[in-house]
Amino acid sequence: MQPIELIQSRTVVLASTNIDTDQIIPARFLTTTSREGLGAHLFADWRYDSAGQPRADFVLNTPAAAGCEILVAGRNIGCGSSREHAPWALMDFGFKTIISTQIADIFRGNSLKNGLLPIVVDESTHEYLLAHPGIALKISIVDRTLTLPDGRNISFALENFARFCLLNGTDELGYLLSQSAQIEHFEKAHQS
Questions:
Q1: pTM of the complete model
Q2: Is residue 1 included in any domain, yes or no?
Q3: 152: domain CATH number?
């Protein structure tokens, strides 16, 4: 994982509500333990027709979505099964953050553990973001703020350990491994 302090990008809006993890990455693509290539299957049942051709009317297939790192989703994204492949697919596609008014707990945890920033905003901010697709946002992990184009700063919750991991480009295992010397010292000092 790469350290992330600041995300500056345009948004893509997918206003659907109750987007479950099987819609994010259908179960038939869960045969891999690799993250690479999953972005091609992100929202596969929505992005492609029965012949496997991109649907021109699906937002991620439009030129406006190219290069966007922020997905604004409708209420309750990530519900359903607890597949880690969902944040992997979003990240492999190029997203660094997801914004909604409600993000399923297990999906939120999986996202943070893999370097994808889930942000929960209030209804008013969410309505503004949904109504203005493609706007440029600035997201500071250091300050835990989302800055709108008019300069308003919206604070978001981010627990300290998750913030530390994002800022340092590490995950839980990487953090534990970085503490190996202290762990060994503690174990030696407390042998019975």
A1: 0.90
A2: no
A3: 3.20.19.10
